Amino acid sequence: MLKTNTHSLTKDLVGNKLQCISCHLKGSDDKPGTASGIGTFVDTATAFPAYSKREKTVQTLQNRINNCFMRSMDGKRPIVDTEASIAMATYITWLSTGKTINLNEKRPCGPSNSERWAKNIKKFTKIQKKAKHTNYTNGKKLFTQKCISCHGVQGQGIASFPPLWGKDKTNHSLSYNTGAGMSKLNKGAAWVQSNMPLYQGDSLSNQEAADIMLYVNAQPRADFDLKKGLQTNNNMGYYNSKVLEEKHSVRSNFKALGLDIDKIRGDKKIK
Ligand code: HEC
Ligand code: HEC
């Protein structure tokens, strides 16, 4: 979780420069996923196995973890029951030691996240649906004030502070792709409001978080094509999903909220 893109068991499966802890933050005990903001792992295991609308199947905790590799990590899915998959599921399960089983029929999320996601996604959808170019420029201004000291002007990341978008010199994506939860305007805003700026979670207003992630998620990042992913991923074992086709781009993520990316950005430079 701490060194996902350099650890020998997972480095070949990660396509970008992120670690699990880039989004499942360390708490005061310095352990992955114990911070209390949205995305915490403190009671995640109590909810699994859990139904997922995205895959239209009941997902085990290993399924859930491994799918993040194709999206948030822009890489390849580990095989269920191999060492890395078991290790990560074991760690997350251990965090729930002593907690009551709390299976989730609605979404594959632990009790500390489930309703928080639902409530905040609804809130940000309402705000972001009305977005105009001025919200984009406001997002850019706020990003410059509150985020570039750690994430860089180009969103490229600085030292151990992770990248938010863009590519490296070898054309590899630096951050999450357009199939990741974070790339959805409303989910991204919910996460950022709860967790960023680092150690100052819950400091951004609704409009600020909405506009900042309108700006961040309008920047270039890798497209997601599940079908292609499954082809290049053909030794990943059984894939527990009834949905085998799914495509996303920056453009389609905006369209999902009824927004035209060209109008929002005020230009036509982006795919
Ligand atoms: C770019 C940010 C990002 C990264 C990196 C990331 N995740 Fe996630 N993860 C999310 C978001 C956002 C959600 C919830 C939203 C969703 O369902 O898409 C989530 C949900 C989860 C959940 C469900 C937790 C719960 O209780 O709701 C698990 C388990 C999980 N991720 C595991 C991992 C593991 C393991 C890694 C590293 C291999 C990882 N994630 C990397 C963003 C990320
Ligand atoms: C003081 C430094 C700091 C500031 C300021 C900051 N971040 Fe972060 N951010 C981090 C760190 C560090 C992580 C990853 C957590 C870790 O490695 O422990 C992170 C993770 C993220 C992630 C998920 C991982 C990724 O790279 O995609 C997003 C999205 C993000 N920050 C957005 C923002 C936004 C938007 C702002 C401004 C409102 C902001 N951050 C301000 C340090 C910072």
Spans with pLDDT under 50 lasting ≥5 residues? Answer: none
Tally of separate helices: 10
Share in helix: 25-40%
- CATH-defined topology: Cytochrome Bc1 Complex, Chain D, domain 2
Could you give me the name of the CATH homologous superfamily?
Cytochrome c-like domain
Strand portion: under 5%
**Mean pLDDT score:** 96
Strand order of the largest sheet: 1-2
> For the CA atoms, what is the radius of gyration?
18 Å
What brief labels describe this structure?
single chain; 271 residues; mainly alpha; Cytochrome Bc1 Complex, Chain D, domain 2; two-stranded antiparallel ribbon; binds heme C
Explained architecture:
This protein is mainly alpha-helical. It has a single domain (11-265), classed as Orthogonal Bundle (Cytochrome Bc1 Complex, Chain D, domain 2), CATH 1.10.760. Helix content is 36%, strand content 4%. A hairpin with a 4-residue loop joins strand 1 and strand 2 (57-59). Helix 3 crosses helix 6, helix 3 (111-128) packs across helix 7 (206-216) and helix 4 (133-146) packs across helix 7 (206-216). The longest helix is centred in the middle third of the chain and has 18 residues, at 111-128. The chain is globular. One heme C binds next to helix 1, helix 2 and helix 6.
Question: How do you describe this structure in short?
Answer:
The chain is mainly alpha-helical.
Give a topology summary.
Elements: E1 50-52, E2 57-59, H1 61-70, H2 83-95, H3 111-128, H4 133-146, H5 148-151, H6 185-195, H7 206-216, E3 224-225, H8 226-231, E4 247-248, H9 250-255, H10 261-265
Antiparallel strand pairs: 1-2, 3-4
Helix pairs in contact: 1-2, 3-6, 3-7, 4-7, 6-7
Bound molecules: heme C (2 copies).
